[in-house]
Structures
1.
Amino acid sequence: MAQAVSTLCNTTQLFVLFFFSGLLSHDLYPSCPYSLLRPGVGVCSQLLDRLRAANKWFGASIPFFVCELKAVAAYKRGFFCGDTSITYPYIESEAIPNSMLIAGGIMITGLTIAVGECCRVRFIGVHSRAFVRNLYVSCLYKELGSFLFGCCVGQSLTNMAKLSVGRLRPHFLTVCNVTYASLNCVPGTYISDVVCKNETSLDEKIVEEARKSFFSGHSSFAMYTMLYLAFYLQARLSWRGARLLRPLLQFMLVMLAVYTGFSRISDYHHHPTDVLTGFLQGGLTAYWVAFYISSMFKTSCPGMSPTTLSLESPLSSQQTVC
């Protein structure tokens, strides 16, 4: 009963945090970007608009940082005696560690977007009525900001699921340092609680992480960053020689994300369903941010100067200026 109450409290806290962050990140603006200089709007109002827009990042990051700071405990889920899915060995050396995942995902996508936007401003002649007169800063702020906002949303959803579900990783019994023989249990019976034989505080942290299998943060983050970059290439890489280069690059990016997720299965850190769910969450987040948050696929708003675009891309008529 106490465990059920604790689970209900943890889940309630997570959804309250996410709802609160949604209020902070609520978009108060119409289809045109908030950086347009609207007639009759003073400098103070424009600065207030930018503070509200900054709340997108802050609000979407609240659940992520709360979970990372261990403010909400993970749900302690039990298991059935004889369940072989949680008896795999613990592999300390990961094929793709967290540092490589984060650095690679953000640097590859971020640098590509930065170079792409700078080239648009330099060679295409983009015009803007943004409050920030520097075209480079304006374009980078909007495109990189949308990408980072999606990162915050995706990782917040991932951590919420990990703490709320509390699914055991495939190597749980190994890091817990127990066996079914030592538990002296009857096969098929449900074990609601188990005392792990940990010797150090590091072992306790590993056991805590072993309760966060669903869903895979590696697969969701990799799919989001790589698929978002594939969408960006579809919108921006529109020159004549990119008809075959663009789909080749997009295929390589998606395959890189798929490999990242599959490596989590071979490392015994996630179940196959954890990885598939992570792919789905990352893909949906990338689609949502690319088509509904970012301006890369939106038509030009009234009052914006048209830009010279190539007619080779089927989406070139929908590309915008900053």
Note: Residues 2-318 form one domain.
2.
Amino acid sequence: MSIKNVLRKGLSLFAEFPEDEAAASPASTYTTPTPTPRTVEEIVASTPGPKLEEINLGTEPAPAVPAPGGAPDFNAVYQRAGLPVVPFTAEQALEVIHSLPADLPIDVRRKTVQATLQTMGKAMGVGTDAVLSDATRKLAALAAYEDLLKGQTEAYCTKVQGQIADLERQIAEHKTDIDNTRQMLESATKSCTDESERLDDVIEFFTQDVGASKYAGGGPTEQA
């Protein structure tokens, strides 16, 4: 799945809520309404930071382009995209998630992580909304980074392909020059050979028909 498709899918998902916030409230005759589920897109729109459609990396060369097999400097990408610095990042939340036993049911892991965030939130202002928004904005930045890299790559490839075509044209011209030169050599060699035979006829005419003479021993043609 492409980065943009991952982002679109994520935006359409509904967020998980902490377990029964209403039950944790002091007893009263007033019943707290059940919170309306919100999509990730709605949550991101409600948190401080750039709107998703505003996240881009401009037209300057992409930051931190890795060598083949390497990974980009994601922090440089996020900084270039203007993402806000948050007290608890999506990557840190991922560390908490991965620290839990993989065989725990997903519901148990969610409640555990949410409880951790609630505890941290009292001291650091950390919450599920902030983590979801950080992850989503970073996805948008990665999608923009991918678009920028694709554009740069296509421009570079077009330029190099033009250079290759020019070199191929030059190679074809040089090959033609080589063929013409060889034909000139062949023609000149034949002319020289023909002329050498004519001059040899002069020498043969005024010399004896012995030894190396082509007329020695009754050659193909007798001298007049």
Note: The two ends are 95 Å apart (CA to CA).
3.
Amino acid sequence: MLEDNIMGEDLSLNLKLHLRKKVLLYVALPVVVVGLLIFGLARQGFLGDWFDALRRATATVHIVDAQQQPVEMAQVVFGTVIGSTDAQGNATIGSLVAGAQQLALRKSGFNPVEQEVTLKRGSNDLGTFTLQKSPAARISKISLTVEDYISEQPIGDAYVTLSDLRPIYSDSGYEFTEVPVGNYKLTVSKSGYNDYIAPKVKIGTDTSKLPQVLLVKTGSVVFESNREGGKRGVFIASYDGTDQRNLVERIGEFEDFAPQLGPNQNKVLFSSTRDGKSDGEGGYKPYFYVVDVDGSNLTKVSTKSGIYDAVWSPDGGYIGFTRYNASATTLYSYNVVTKSTSTFSAYDTYAFVYSGDGEHIAFSGLKGGVQGLFYANSNATGIKKIDNQEVYSLEFTASGNLRYLSYSGNKTNYYEYNFATGKRSTISAPPIDKIGAILSPDGKLRAYVSTRDGRANVYVSGPDGKNELQLTDINKVSQGDLLWAKDSSFIIFNVTSQDETARYLVSTNGAADAKKIVDINLSYGYGYGY
């Protein structure tokens, strides 16, 4: 019995021990497994991310300048996280960790701001921050020279601005002082010139001089070009060749050609086939038209074709031209203002010229088969005969007298007719290359083309032919193709050679180089084309 009791007690003890082990195993094993899992997650970094997610924060800032204006594209930095402000100066930065953070605000041209902030989980409105502009480096002196494009002479009374900065002027040019580094708009203007505008001029720490500015006088040249599929058209450009465009739009297969800019340079005469009338030879009849230099007020001058030798009066008030009518060449005088045409129908005309004021016209020809030199009002009234000879090379002088020549046998005679006295006097023969010289609008100079040793160039002299000055050395200037500037400061002319057909201009000061304006096409027989 005792043995049985002992064996029973041992069995009960073993059962109790096994039960405790099982309980311990059931409790400890999950703890170990969870521990190992957490250790693995920690080793992989997942646990840290999970804890960070519990601490995520978002921060919003508003940035303005000293004038309380929004600052766009300012950099907002939280450690390694970077954002920027929008056009309203706002920025919202996410994926931040709650807690203490170092905030940095930066923008080029402003002093940076750095500040420690404490972020809570979720959204954080940090409010408005003000950035103060940093003092820019300044350049003590920046120089600028302004010259006339044509004369190459300095211009000292132009209105010059570098954004809101104004320079002082001295004999050495314009000078800006204490200019902050940055980007500026340069504007140069002067009455009688096209404005010069450079929208973005960068001033750096090494800037001491701005590029030279060349001001171009207001005004235009008109020219013929066949750039549109070989069809001739009339174009316009500035004196430096910029702003080229159609003066009038060419129509279909028809052509506009041989433009002549009037002396007052606000109207243009040209020939055109835009009427579309057949000439019976596979082409179209040309007619004269006048248009304002801005392309408006297109007016037909001639009702008949076959006209030629068109000439503007010096004041721009009349246009003279001739037309062959069966047995005679008839002279016409068109009033640009009244748009009316006067006809010298009783005369067979072969040369004519307007007086300097445009009020009178002199012409040579036949009346009833008898030679003569005639003088009349430009509207074909008050015609009177002042010489009985056949004369040529008509030219009004600065004093209003009329010069001309006649041939008698093998001799050439030169005359000057004084309208105040009604008398003719014999004068010395002028140099052959000065015959037909063009008097300047102010009456102080005569311009002409002279060919010397095979080289054709532009010359000027005083109204008496003295004090000659050569203006060009191009050597290929076209004879007769001269046009004075309204202010008598320069001359426009053509150059024709195997290399080019182009329009040029040159200052009358004798120091500046001639300058090419534009390549052109020339149609002779209908005017020289200015």
Note: Residues 525-530 have pLDDT under 50 and may be disordered.
